[in-house]
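ok trying this again, last paste got cut off
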Amino acid sequence: MKRLKHNKKRNTLFLFEILIQEMTKCITAKDDEGKLNILSIIKEFFAEGTDLKKEKDLLGNIVYSENMTSRNVERLIFHTREEYAKLNSEFIFVQQTKLIKEINKQLGSNVFKTFVKNYKRIATAHQLFNAELNPKQRVMIEQTLLNPKQKIAKEDLVHVDKLVYTKFVENFNKKYASELFEEQSKLLTYYITSFTDNGVGLKTFVNEEISRIGVQLKESIQNYEIQENSELETGIGKIIEKVSNFSKTPINEAMLKDIINLQQLIRELDSDAN
C-alpha cells in the first residue's frame, strides 16, 4: 500500500498538543509571560464552541481510546465520522492558518519539531478523516486504530516524519554531548526515542547497562580491597542488590535517574582506581 504523507501543521490535535507542552515548559521554568501568551492562543482558537476545538475533541476521542475494546473503538470511529462530516473544513483551514501564524510569531517555527508522544496515532486518526483513502487504505488505518499493539507490515504504517525525528536526535546530542558521558547520552536518547520501536532498544540497552554496572560494582569491592562487613562494603552491597532488582521492574523515569547516577558513580570509581 502506498505510504500516506501527513502534514502535521494541518493536524489540529497536534497543534494543540505542542501548545500544551510548551505551556508546561513555561510553568516549570516559572516563565509567567510565556505561559500567559500560550494560554491566550489556546483561549482564542480552542474556546468552547469553536470548530478547532470540535475537531480537536473528535480526534482526541479516537487517539486516546487505547483502553477501549476494539468493538467500542469501531463504534466510536463510526459516530466520529458522522460528526466530522458536519465540520466546516474550509473554515477550519482558515483558522488553522491563523493559528500556525500565531504559533510562529509567539513561539518560533522550531516548535513544530516538538516531540509528541502519541504522534503516530495522532497522525493516523487525522488521516482517517482527512486524507483521500481507497478502501484498502481505510481498512488498514482503522485496523491500526483498533489494534494499536498489533504489528502491521512496514509498508502499511502511517508515515512518521523521519526528518523531524532525526533532527530531534541531532539537536539532543548537540545540546548534551558535552555534559553527559557517552553511556548517559545513549540511555537518554533511547528513552526519548523509544516510541519508534515500542521501547525495544531502550529495554535492551537498560538490561546491558544493569549487567555492566552490577559487574563493575562487584569488581570495585576487590579493586579497593574493601574490608568485609565495613560500612562501605555494606553500602555497595545494597546498591548491587538494588541494581539486580531493576530487571524485575518496569522501566520508568525514577529507574532511569538511578541508572544515570550509577553510571556517574562507575565512572568516578574507574577514575579513582586508575
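PB: full thing came through this time. Confidence is low (pLDDT under 50) at residues 150-161.
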